[in-house]
Design a protein that fits this description.
Bound molecules: ligand C2E, calcium ion
Strand order of the largest sheet: 10-11-13-14-15-16-17-18
CATH architecture of the largest domain: Alpha-Beta Barrel
Strand content: 5-15%
Distance between the termini: 101 Å
Shape: rod-shaped
Number of strands: 18
Structural class: alpha/beta
Largest sheet: 8 strands, mixed, barrel
CATH class of the largest domain: Alpha Beta
Low-confidence stretches: none
Length: 728
């Protein structure tokens, strides 16, 4: 495409040139009498010859140029132009040779043949260009090139035939000493008229190819100027005739430029542009191959190549920090990857700002970052840096209407202490990162023992993928005893995994893996459906109504269709919603706004909501007034210490009185000893759950032993009531 600047400067130059020519023309016109005969008769033949040679060179160049490019362009128009200019070039040669003052050529040179040759060439130019304008551009076979280029020969021979016929066929065009006659001027004006038509047509197409049209217009103006001058000279030595030749030469030169531009310069520039474009996309591809597209940070390939290059250069100790974003998989699985990606790129931004320039920050495939530090002074320096990185994450991230918090788990591997191989270093740092989440600081240096644990964990994750399909998961139910009635009115559903090789695996082990990998979504749905079905089965078996409590993970709460999913399960299993309780944990209060909306929607379904492990969360209790909660579950850790620790006792008391105040039910978890129970009975706790009454048991056992469980419970409760009465 012709760029604007280029456009403008050419235009300016062109206009300057034309203005200059106009002035030149006026000077010549005014002073023509003075200039008349300035060259002298003898000199003029030579001067004219030089001018004509230049014109011939230019016209010939046009035809040669088009001949040469035609195999690449294969356009009929281009070939016609070439042929036209070859003809004109031949005619100009004839004109030159027959010009007055030239040596003997066929006959004595007279203005008769010379002016006719000129006139024929001139008319041919206008008519030819006009015709070519109307020819439809199309591809042409290369062999036609020869045919088209042989036309000029035919034409010039015919011209010679006509002009050198024994008796002149055509009338003369000029009278010596007087100048051109009427016929000559009529023909000249006809040429001008034709050229004006060409100009009008050109102008119409200006937008399509401004530069080419502009050059064509300039050329036409020059040609018309020369035409005009050729109508007013007195004889061939007149300076007007000479100036006419200059303009004619100028016109041909501009035409040459136009054709050169359209057939060579412009395609060439387009080629250069394409090449540049290609080069750019190649650079872009290279960049993409070495960078992560979400964060624009260098990727794994970049890191590996840098490590291969740099690791062994100096003997200094180096470190790899693997940085994992806590819960990112859950966010991805539940909120979708758009949110997760936004979050990741915000985190990347903060990390980049917090890190010194010299450290290389990369983003690896599975949503974790790696920092390469090429000179480590002390491990303390690394701990400090890690803490700084964690610190910058403290402020929550605002992503659309969610405000999300994130923590970083950081694993560190040292070169050459832990390994001197780049892949292993990264792997070890990742292992340490996985272990880091179990520590309070969330920072962990790699130790050889970690490798084993992590490998196990990764293997488990792999197996967990198939666990659902292979029916390795099942549910157990732990009864909850209503202390007011002594009845089992509810149970908590707890998921179990019977691994085909490794045997029984605790949910404490595989639930976090499921959460991290996003598997919690399908597993959670399966648990819910199975639990609801079970309640209906018990009902069918004749047991009194039992409510089931199902644990929800954070990932599930952010699952987009959670409410719908639960509704579907209720409809499918025909369970009345009041028999379903959902357990959430305090740590889920990271996003109060979102939680409030979701919980209200859940409540609207008719299910009840309990806060699990109450008291262990670090969040403020302010959410209690916003969330539509029905029940608090006092964590096992408090219950366990009831007998020994007076602070915990006070805490349990406080929870109970707060619950009463907020009109919430209270379930105390993990009751193992009779003393714990008696304290809770005394404190008017509503419900208890614990090994003292029953461990989590398979549903058929619960059904079969339903009565016995009640008898046991009654026995225990009675013993307390007795002891309470006795102590009173
Ligand atoms: P949780 O929700 O706090 O579940 C209660 C846990 O305490 C269960 O452990 C239960 O077996 C145990 N427990 C109950 N009574 C006593 C007692 O008297 N003494 C002691 N020492 N422990 C008692 P479990 O089954 O190992 O589950 C561990 C955790 O795994 C659960 O803690 C829950 O957070 C999670 N979990 C279990 N099933 C599911 C599930 O289906 N979905 C989700 N998201 N999480 C689940
Ligand atoms: Ca629970
Ligand atoms: Ca619990």
């Amino acid at each position: 495409m012709w760029k604007f600047n280029e456009n403008f400067s050419s235009l300016r130059h062109g206009i300057q040139f034309i203005l200059f020519s106009m002035i030149f023309l006026i000077v010549i016109g005014l002073g023509s009498e003075k200039f008349y005969g300035i060259f002298g008769e003898n000199n003029y033949s030579a001067i004219h010859l030089m001018m004509e040679i230049l014109i011939i060179v230019v016209t010939m160049s046009i035809s040669i140029q088009t001949w040469l490019i035609s195999p690449y362009i294969l356009s009929n128009r281009v070939l016609y132009i070439g042929s036209l200019f070859l003809t004109i070039s031949f005619i100009e040669i004839a004109h030159t040779l027959t010009y007055k003052g030239m040596p003997f050529f066929i006959t004595e040179s007279t203005p008769y043949a010379a002016t006719w040759f000129y006139m024929l060439g001139r008319l041919l130019l206008s008519i030819g260009v006009l015709c070519i304008y109307f020819v439809k551009e199309k591809e042409i076979k290369l062999i036609y090139r020869w045919l088209i280029y042989s036309l000029p020969f035919v034409i010039i021979i015919s011209c010679f035939g006509i002009l050198y016929a024994p008796t002149p066929i055509l009338p003369p065009l000029m009278i010596e000493g007087e100048g051109p006659n009427l016929l000559k001027n009529t023909l000249q004006y006809t040429a001008i008229a034709l050229h004006l038509v060409i100009m009008v047509i050109s102008l119409k197409n200006f937008k399509k190819a401004p530069k080419i049209i502009f050059l064509l217009l300039c050329s036409s103006i020059y040609l018309i100027m020369s035409d005009y001058l050729y109508t007013i000279y007195k004889d061939v030595y007149d300076i007007k005739n000479f100036t006419g030749h200059i303009f004619e030469l100028g016109a041909f030169y501009l035409l040459f430029r136009a054709i050169y531009f359209s057939s060579i310069e412009r395609p060439f520039k387009q080629l250069v542009d394409t090449q540049e474009h290609l080069e750019k996309s190649r650079e872009k591809m290279h960049y993409m191959a070495y960078h992560n597209e979400i964060t624009n940070l260098p990727n794994e390939r970049f890191l590996m190549e840098s490590l291969k290059r740099d690791l062994y250069i100096s003997k200094s100790q180096k470190a790899i920090l693997a940085i994992g974003i806590e819960r990112i998989s859950a966010i991805k699985a539940s909120l979708g990857s758009t949110y997760a990606d936004q979050m990741i790129s915000l985190i990347a931004h903060r990390l980049k700002n917090a890190l010194p320039e010299k450290h290389l920050l990369c983003m690896l495939r599975e949503d974790y970052f790696v920092v390469y530090i090429d000179e480590v002074k002390s491990t303390h320096q690394l701990t400090h840096l890690s803490q700084q990185l964690q610190f910058v994450m403290e402020e929550s991230f605002q992503i659309q209407h969610f405000s999300l918090n994130s923590q970083l788990n950081i694993g560190i591997a040292l070169f050459p202490t832990n390994s001197y191989r780049e892949e292993e270093l990264i792997r070890f740092a990742l292992y340490a990162m996985h272990e880091a989440q179990k520590t309070s600081t969330r920072i962990r240096f790699y130790e050889s023992s970690i490798s084993n644990e992590t490998t196990q964990r990764l293997l488990l994750e792999n197996d967990l993928h198939d666990a659902l399909a292979n029916q390795e998961l099942f549910l157990e139910y732990q009864p909850q005893l209503d202390l007011h009635t002594g009845q089992i009115k509810s149970v908590e559903a707890l998921v179990r995994w019977q691994h085909p090789k490794k045997g029984w695996i605790s949910p404490g082990v595989f639930i976090p893996i499921a959460e991290e990998s996003g598997l919690i979504i399908p597993i959670g749905q399966w648990v819910l459906e199975t639990a609801c079905k079970q309640v209906k089965k018990w009902e069918a078996a004749g047991l009194p109504p039992i409510k089931v409590a199902v644990n929800l993970s954070l990932g599930q709460l952010f699952q987009q269709n959670l409410v719908e999913m639960i509704l579907n399960v209720l409809e499918k299993t025909q369970l009345e919603p009041q028999y379903l309780q959902l357990e959430i944990t305090e740590s889920m209060t990271i996003n109060i706004d979102h939680m409030t909306t979701i919980l209200h929607k859940l409540k609207a379904l008719g299910v009840t909501i309990a806060v699990d492990d109450f008291g262990t969360g670090y969040s403020s209790l302010s959410y209690l007034k916003d969330f539509p909660i029905d029940c608090l579950k006092i964590d096992r850790s408090f219950v366990q210490k009831i007998q020994s620790n007076s602070t915990d006792k006070a805490l349990v008391d406080m929870i109970l009185s707060m619950a009463k105040h907020l009109q919430l039910k209270v379930v105390a978890e993990g009751i193992e000893e009779i003393e714990q129970l008696s304290y809770l009975v005394e404190s008017k706790c509503d419900t208890v759950q614990g090994f003292l009454f029953s461990k989590p048991i398979p549903p058929n056992i619960l059904q079969e032993n339903y009565q016995r469980l009640h008898n046991d419970a009654k026995y225990i409760l009675d013993s307390i009531t007795d002891s309470i009465t006795v102590s009173e």
